């Protein structure tokens, strides 16, 4: 399936390709890309098993790459596309990065930050725009398939 270049679906599909790389490496298949001015500046996938590091989530690795790219600790003009709703750790990192926009594929019913925080708690930075459900079915199925195989 082809998506219009520059659309949320286009960039989410690029994040999905990273999730496929994670799947090939027997990692939980989550992928992320960070975009600035219509250009992908960071790509990442989960690497917790590969790096033996429980913090090596796709979002964290992508953020570190973007910080390095800009030589800055804030990303207000960037968009993070991630195939699965971030966990509380990653949501906290996104808050501190002041990411301009967050686009999420599938919800994470067990570990997603939305379910782990109270409704009045503002986890993301107040200026972060949030879009959810982009290619949700596709992004959710790869994770469900991975865990179904494990059981």
Descriptive report:
By secondary structure, the chain is of the alpha/beta class. Helix content is 39%, strand content 19%. It contains five helices and five strands, in the order H-E-E-H-H-E-H-E-E-H. A five-stranded mixed β-sheet has the order 2-1-3-4-5. Strand 1 and strand 2 form a beta hairpin. The relative contact order is 0.16.
**Which segments are poorly predicted (pLDDT under 50) over 5 or more consecutive residues?**
none
Cα(first) to Cα(last) distance is 30 Å
The number of distinct helices, counting runs of at least 4 residues, comes to 5
The main sheet comes to: 5 strands, mixed
What general outline do the C-alpha atoms trace? globular
Sum up the structure in keywords.
151 residues; alpha/beta; five-stranded mixed sheet; 39% helix
Give the gist of this structure.
The chain is built from 5 helices and 5 strands; from the N terminus they run αββααβαββα.
Explain the layout of strands and helices.
Layout: H1 8-24, E1 31-36, E2 39-45, H2 48-51, H3 58-70, E3 78-84, H4 88-97, E4 101-106, E5 129-131, H5 136-150
Parallel strand pairs: 3-4, 4-5
Antiparallel strand pairs: 1-2, 1-3
Helix pairs in contact: 1-5
């Amino acid at each position: 399936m082809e998506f219009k270049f520059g659309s949320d679906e286009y960039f989410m599909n690029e994040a999905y390709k990273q999730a496929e790389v994670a799947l090939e490496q027997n990692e939980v298949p989550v992928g992320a890309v960070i975009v600035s001015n219509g250009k992908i500046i960071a790509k990442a996938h989960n690497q917790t098993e590969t790096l033996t590091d429980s913090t090596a989530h796709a979002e964290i690795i992508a953020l570190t790459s973007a910080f390095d790219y800009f030589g800055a600790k804030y990303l207000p003009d960037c968009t993070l596309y991630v195939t699965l709703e971030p966990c509380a750790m990653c949501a906290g990192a996104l808050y501190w990065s002041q990411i301009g926009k967050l686009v999420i594929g599938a919800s994470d019913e067990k570990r997603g930050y939305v379910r782990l925080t109270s409704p009045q708690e503002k986890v993301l930075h107040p200026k972060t725009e949030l879009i959810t459900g982009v290619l949700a079915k596709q992004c959710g199925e790869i994770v469900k398939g991975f865990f179904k195989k494990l059981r």
